[in-house]
Amino acid sequence: MAAFVVTLDGVIAGWGDGVASLLGYRADEVIGRDVSMFLPGEHPSDFPRILAAAARGQRIETFETLVGRDGMRLQVALRAVPTRNGGGQVTGARATLRDVTPERAEEAQAWLMALLESSHDGIYALDPRGVIRNWSPGAERLYGYAAHEAVGLPYTSLFPDNRHDEAAMALDCALAGEPVSLFDTEARRKDGGLVPSFLNLWPVWDRRGNVAGVSAIARDVTEETLVQEALADSQARLRDTEAMARVGHWVWDVGTGAVQWSEGLHRIFGLDPVRFAGTLEAHLDAIHPADRKRVRAEMHEAVSASAPFTSRYRILRPDGTTSWLDSRADVVAPGPPPGTVAGLRGICQEVEIFHRGSEEAAG
């Protein structure tokens, strides 16, 4: 692979064997020098835009003309991704190159067509007026238009009327040179049907450094949407079931000490989620002082013995009421090595409620 690393100020910081073979420069000839050393001076370079995108944490794909050590000019497809230091700060970009000079253009075109043919996403190209100029088989499947029907249509025709302003604004941003992602939109099919979709718009630059058009990738997310809806429905049913049965669920992660409560358990303990610290100590603090030490020991014993936890204990709510709970939990094993325990996953059921002062009376 032909790859090199350049800092945000354009200094070459890394040089791979592949790019050395492609451009003819050894690492000791380029490390520490400005990337402009192998850029032709008469045409604007994409490198300022590439490094600006890297500084924002974005990856970018473009075409660039490079000059080899022997003076030969190469047309390359360039893909740059941000590089980061140990603290996560962007320090530069790692650029990978693929030679697409004219003698290899036919091969590159064949690869591109194979990619378009095999992709399930809808891929199409727009000119600066927002008119469709290219149309992939995936776009035909998603939108229902054949290529000869789609080419020449306005881009906004692929959206329902109430999404036109959103779509037009996204296109304007892409034409201004900024990639745009619409993560929650709808594709309007030829038959008028609406399909939940994600859309990415990416500016296409010409050799003079101007935006010549926009590439678009649309993805049908119907299945993902149905899964999310089913999950939301399942969670709603769980909340209803917990409320009716006066039960709640909890998980204790031994490694981090974190404890998670379900909505039903917050309801039983009478604690707002915002007020619950999410730790083992916070979990135990909600237990009646007379039972707290015993329950702590039982939980740790279950983890040590890798055995189920069962207990009956009282809780003391902030409003002064007291309840008895039956609690049981199974150990959660993270996998190998055998015998290790990641924590406990349990359920509590409220079995008896006492009001303020009534517990002593019932005693």
What features would you describe in this structure?
By secondary structure, this protein is of the alpha+beta class. Helices cover 33% and strands 33% of the residues. It has twelve helices and 15 strands. A five-stranded antiparallel β-sheet has the order 2-1-5-4-3. A five-stranded antiparallel β-sheet has the order 7-6-10-9-8, with helices on both faces. A five-stranded antiparallel β-sheet has the order 12-11-15-14-13. Strand 11 and strand 12 form a beta hairpin. The N and C termini lie far apart (78 Å).
List keywords for this structure.
about 375 residues; alpha+beta; Beta-Lactamase; 3 domains; 5-stranded antiparallel beta sheet; about 35% strand; elongated
Distance between the termini: 78 Å
CATH top level of the largest domain is Alpha Beta
Q: Treating each run of at least 4 consecutive H or I residues as one helix, how many helices?
A: 12
Tell me the major beta sheet.
5 strands, antiparallel
Shape: elongated
How much helix, percentage-wise, in residues? 25-40%
Mean pLDDT: 83
How many domains in all?
3
So, the CATH homologous superfamily of the largest domain?
PAS domain
With strands numbered from the N-terminus, the spatial order across the biggest sheet is: 2-1-5-4-3
CATH topology of the largest domain: Beta-Lactamase
Order of helices and strands: EEHHHEEEHEEHHHEEEHEEHHHEEEH
Strand segment tally? 15
CATH level-two architecture of the largest domain: 2-Layer Sandwich
Radius of gyration: 31 Å
- What structural class do you assign from the helix and strand content? alpha+beta
